[in-house]
Design brief:
Blueprint (H helix, E strand, L loop, with lengths): L27 H7 L5 H16 L5 E5 L4 E4 L3 E5 L10 H11 L12 H10 L3 E6 L3 H7 L3 H12 L4 E5 L3 E5 L3 E8 L1 H7 L12 E4 L14 H23 L4 E2 L4 H22 L4 H21 L8 H26 L14 H8 L3 E3 H10 L4 H13 L3 E5 L2 E4 L2
Parallel strand pairs: 1-9, 3-7, 3-8, 4-7
Antiparallel strand pairs: 1-2, 5-6, 10-12, 11-12
Helix pairs in contact: 1-8, 2-3, 3-8, 9-10, 9-11, 10-11
Length: 409
């Protein structure tokens, strides 16, 4: 098996995430953090890292999922897998962002801990917190023989399931509903220590961002040194306001609309067949659990706008696109674990791009806006124009004037 993180025939699939989004549609705090990036890889790393860090700052907000209507909270667990000197250090800006909240409300849980010390720290913070480790060697060097204890605990934490310890000196310690967000960056070998095989239950619960890598000398330094410190602090203060708003209230339920839930189910059912056919049944749980991750991402995006009740279509479609691409990243990690990195990974298409494009357009739009939205989704100009002509022909849209259109209510 290869120890590198080489990409299987990169031309087969575009793993970029931010490239497929309209950055202007992201919540303002996310947009501001993305200005710190100097390469496309750093944009992707920052996007997922910001969402993960922010997920620790959204207490008492939950959604219900599944036939038992189980409560799920915002907390994400992310591993950024990349070769050395590939730009993953930019994730440290998120640590600076969360630090602002941590100074007022203890959040940080050190990853550089033995398992008993880690458990005690989480217990003392009522099961809530944020763990950020930029050196993957912590996993291999510090966690050492306790790595499987971490693996089991983090798997339960991802589901907010009870974790406990019972020792002669300390007695029984129980964390009923852990809510831990975690961001780790490291190489494939370090990832493999935590996720030893594809049958391991943690594989499907740990989001994986596979960084393809760009020429390190092609960076464009787009922000000043002062911005490198000012922006994380500014966004951190916004998160502090959000944290304190939610922290002082009782738990609050947030939800997708029924139409959004239906669309999410249809999308994952469609992709399930493609992914299982190409990757096998061992990838089953990754697809199923991605529904929860997409809802978490949508809830975080909503909360960053101050929308704490019902998801809007813009944030839902953004979360759906992010989850769509993350499935490809997890497929890449799946291939690497299997030692089969040279086989193609699935090129997953968003559910009914025509429908998504139509929903993203305002009631009145012009051709320029249509093509901008289409470009953000990777839709060709000719295709967008053809779909627009179809909408006019079927009565969904009326032409107001030259290159100006209106949706029919």
């Amino acid at each position: 098996m290869s120890n590198s993180t080489q990409t299987p025939r990169e031309e087969q699939v575009n793993l970029r995430i931010v490239d497929h989004l309209d950055k202007q549609s992201l919540p303002e705090p996310v947009q501001e953090m993305l200005t710190l990036a100097s390469t496309p890889d750093e944009e992707d790393i920052l996007l997922l890292s910001v969402l993960t860090g922010a997920s620790a700052c959204v207490p008492n907000l939950y959604f219900r999922y599944g036939p038992t209507a189980k409560r799920y909270y915002a907390n994400l667990q992310l591993f950024v897998m990349a070769a050395p000197a590939s730009g993953k250090g930019i994730a440290g800006q998120v640590q600076n962002m969360v630090k602002v909240v941590d100074e007022q409300h203890s959040l940080f849980i050190p990853g550089d801990s033995t398992y008993p010390a880690w458990f005690n720290a989480l217990y003392e913070q009522n099961g809530c917190g944020y763990m950020h480790e930029s050196e993957g060697s912590v996993i291999t060097d510090i966690w050492g023989a306790s790595v499987m204890n971490y693996n089991t605990a983090l798997r339960k934490v991802a589901e907010h399931e009870q974790i406990s310890r019972n020792r002669v000196l300390t007695g029984k310690m129980v964390i009923e509903c852990p809510k831990l967000s975690m961001l780790l960056t490291g190489t494939f070998n370090q990832y493999r220590t935590l996720v030893p095989n594809v049958e391991n239950g943690y594989f499907s619960r740990l989001l994986t961002l596979f960084v393809q890598g760009t020429n390190p000398f092609s960076k464009k330094y787009v922000t000043s040194l002062s911005a490198q410190s000012v922006i994380p602090e500014k966004v951190g203060n916004r998160l502090l306001e959000l944290y304190e708003t939610l922290h002082q209230d009782e738990e609050k339920e947030w939800t997708l609309t029924q139409e959004q839930k239906d669309m999410l189910g249809e999308h994952l059912e469609t992709e399930y067949k493609t992914l299982i056919m190409m990757l096998g049944q061992n990838f089953h749980s990754a697809v199923v659990r991605m529904a929860i991750q997409i809802e978490r991402i949508a809830m975080i995006l909503s909360a960053l706008r101050g929308n704490l009740e019902v998801c809007n279509d813009e944030d839902f479609l953004t979360a759906l696109m992010i989850g769509n691409k993350l499935l490809q990243h997890m497929a890449m990690a799946f291939r690497l674990i299997e030692g089969d990195a040279q086989r193609a990974i699935p090129d997953i298409k968003p559910l009914d791009q025509r429908r998504i494009l139509f929903k993203q357009l305002k009631n009145e739009y012009d051709r320029k806006t249509l093509l901008q939205e289409a470009k953000a989704q990777g839709i060709a100009v000719r295709t967008a124009d053809r779909w627009n002509a179809d909408w006019i022909e079927t009565g969904q849209v009326t032409k107001q004037s030259h290159n100006t259109f209106r949706k029919v209510a």
